[in-house]
Amino acid sequence: MKGLRLDAMEQYILHNERVTIAQLQRHFDVSVNTLRRDLGELERRGHVVKVYGGAMAHAHGPLKPMPERFHSKVPEKRRIGELAAGLIPDGVTVFVDSGSTACNIIRGLKNRKALTLVTHSLTALNEATRLSGLNLISLGGIYNSSVDAFVGGSTYESIRHLSVQIAAMAASGISIRHGLSNNTYFEAELKREVVKNCKTILLLADGSKFDREALFSFCPLEKVSAVVTDRPPHPRYLEFFDKQGIQVLYPVEK
Fold first, then answer.
1. Looking at residue 9, which CATH number applies to its domain?
2. According to a count of CB atoms within 10 Å of the terminal CB, is the N or C end of the chain lower?
3. SS3 letters for the chain?
4. Both 25 and 121 in a single domain?
5. Do 70 and 52 share a domain, yes or no?
6. Across the chain, what does the average pLDDT equal?
């Protein structure tokens, strides 16, 4: 299928950073004309650039490796996860994305009953297997080490057929104008699919993500149901959240 080939080709180019036409032909067994059309579509996605004799990853700035992201702001992310877990009732289906902040919600779900967790994150899957009584659904796809998660056409297709009541999502950037945004195309595409059919969106993000705009927007800020963060947002955001009826949670210093 063309969609799966495009996803796989994009992943291949991003992984290798720069590839030749000959490499792509050998790897994907397609004609030069087909390859040129595919590269044109990938270039429009924004993460791949056609160059003489091949293609290369678009230089938007290096994405921090996932281990580095998981080990940054650990206390703040754990507090955010604990607060967010309090918003998850028994008996619902929850999607947890691969963001290093969102994964922290899982530890707080150990006493829930009849809870189903859906994720494409390998870290979230490993964390969830430690909880008893939890129904766990893994979204398959192509493993992407930069986000430590499975991505691609089959991942998107899987989430389209699932009914998710609550989504716990992180974001690379948050702004009133641009909404929630992400630095990777694959992640943003999957999050868009979740947002389409999910009524309750929980945004889990530390204060440094506000007033930042990443490359791919995936959710308008007004569609968020609750914001869980580590400190009071700027008054401009608090006013916006109040007008939109969006709940805001953050730790209260004693």
1. 1.10.10
2. C
3. CHHHHHHHHHHHHHHHCEEEHHHHHHHHCCCHHHHHHHHHHHHHHCCEEEECCEEEECCCCCCCCHHHHHCCCHHHHHHHHHHHHCCCCCCCEEEECCCCCHHHHHHHHCCCCCEEEEECEHHHHHHHCCCCCEEEEECCCEEECCCCEEECHHHHHHHHCCCCCEEEECCCEEECCCEEEECCHHHHHHHHHHHHHCCEEEEECCHHHECCCCCEEEECHHHCCEEECCCCCCHHHHHHHHHHCCEEECCCCC
4. no
5. no
6. 87
| Same domain for 25 and 123 | no
Domain end marker among 57, 81, 96: 57
Tokens representing 29 are 């067994």
The 10s digit of each residue's pLDDT in 34-78 is: 998 999 988 887 778 888 888 887 654 444 555 555 555 678 888
pLDDT value at residue 72: 58
pLDDT in tens, 94-130: 999 998 888 889 989 988 999 999 999 999 999 999 9
Are 187 and 115 spatial neighbours (Cβ–Cβ below 8 Å)?
Answer: no
Phi, psi of 176, rounded to the nearest 5 degrees? -65, -40
Q: Which domain holds residue 227?
A: 66-249
Ramachandran area for residue 21 (φ above 0: left; ψ -120 to 50: alpha; else beta)? alpha
